[in-house]
Amino acid sequence: MNEYNAGRGDAGTIPATLIPGDGIGPEIVDAAVKVLDALGSPFAWDVQQGGLAGVAAGGDPLPKATLDSIHRTKLALKGPLTTPVGGGFRSINVRLREEFQLYANLRPAHTLVPGGRFENIDLILVRENLEGLYVAFEHYIPIGDDPQAVAISSGVNTREGSRRIARFAFEHAVKLGRKKVTIVHKANVLKALTGVFLQAAREVAQEYEGRIAFDDRIVDACAMQLVLNPWQFDVIVTTNLFGDILSDLIAGLVGGLGAAPGANIGAAAAIFEAVHGSAPDIAGKGLANPTALLLAAGLMLDHVGRTEAAGRLRGAIDAVLNQDKIRTGDLGGTASTRDFTSAIVGRISGRV
Ligand code: NAI
Ligand code: MG
Taking the mean position of all CA atoms in its chain, how far away is CA 323? Predict the structure, then answer.
């Protein structure tokens, strides 16, 4: 029992780790917990520290107690963590991905507020999260008096890892009733590295024939097509580096990172978060927009099979933004985090 579980009745039956995080983290995590409670949250929270709070407590931005908790619950909702600069700290996100083999990064992009550059965007990007060029096998070769005259980087894609991410994308498409998966690669140039990915993904695609359509695109052409006609895409699956770039591109199609949720999913655990960081410039001021973390909580509900609750959550966000026109400052409104959260809770509990 802790403050996040107070007054919750007995709805919480699924153990899950809750990491408030740094900066605006505690404010938006608090908002997410309130909204989940209004939905009859299935989660029983185990609150753990990370980021600067972890450093303050024990010198590690990713304390052992936090890792142990996620090993136990296999499920986490995480506020943004500030990765301390210098001091030899490795990226917390990379450590989490490796520790729990979170091989799939799921980044949906959905138009929330009409009137942007693109309307009715509804895309899902599935990024391979462990392999590719992000293994960062890098070194320099010195020439003459320049120790870094030549830089070399090797990428690693395995057939098994490629099959695994492709299968994840197709299974996800089936689960959500999607129509098509587009395999994105650069196999015309990186014939080995992304060729093995393309080949493995095509093999997996055959297993879904008649259920999910598929095609493939070269990454540069895909980037252009995403801007010219994003509606032709449905689910995209791609390797680590291309996925990193294209997932930010599709977030841009729906107005930036402010409303972008992300899920990191593996065989051993799944971790849900907002894509944005800890926003130290507005921390503690009650101005943060909790929408991205709320949408991440929606993905978490989907993940545990509570799709009806997830749908109600997304419906409430849409109603508050577009009918009640209650918006935080980053979306041009004047609502505080608290006002916005109360409005969502009101919609969910039918008070509006
Ligand atoms: P940031 O995403 O925290 O902030 C960029 C800008 O967007 C700021 O002006 C901020 O005020 C605004 N913003 C972000 N989220 C917002 C929200 N929910 N509502 C309203 N405005 C919002 O990126 P920045 O400044 O580059 O990073 C700050 C810290 O966050 C760094 O220490 C970084 O390492 C960490 N970070 C952590 C991530 C994670 O834990 N997944 C992801 C990205 C950054
Ligand atoms: Mg990125």
Answer: 27
80 lines ligand 1 (CB under 6 A): yes
Q: Determine whether the shortest distance from the Cβ of 49 to ligand 1 is under 6 A.
A: no
The pLDDT of residue 258: 79
Query: Which of helix, strand or coil describes residue 352?
Result: coil
- Mean residue pLDDT of the chain comes to 93
CA dist., res. 65 & res. 349, Å (int): 35
Cβ proximity of 257 and 275 under 8 Å = yes
- pLDDT at residue 219 is higher than 80: yes
> Tokens representing 141?
């070769």
4, 103, 134, 208: which is the annotated catalytic residue?
134
CA neighbor of 103 nearest in space, from 18, 167, 51: 167
Mean pLDDT of 221-234: 98
- 142-191, pLDDT tens digit by residue? 999 999 999 999 999 999 999 999 999 999 999 999 999 999 999 999 99
3-state helix, strand, coil in the chain (%, to 5): 40, 25, 35
Instruction: Assign 238 to helix, strand or coil.
Output: strand
Q: Please report how the helices 219-228 and 240-253 are oriented relative to each other, as an axis angle in degrees rounded to 10.
A: 10
Q: Tell me the backbone φ, ψ of residue 83, rounded to 5 degrees.
A: -80, 115
The whole-number average pLDDT for the span 47-75 is: 92
Q: H helices of the chain, where? A: 25-38, 52-58, 64-73, 92-99, 159-175, 193-206, 219-228, 240-253, 291-303, 307-322, 337-348
pLDDT in tens, 256-305: 777 899 999 998 899 999 999 999 999 999 999 999 999 999 999 999 99
Distance CA 60, CA 64 (A): 8
CA of 268 to the centre of ligand 2 (A): 23
Sequence letter at residue 171: E
In this prediction, what percent of the chain has a pLDDT beyond 90? 83
The Å distance, Cα 295 to ligand 1 centre, comes to 16
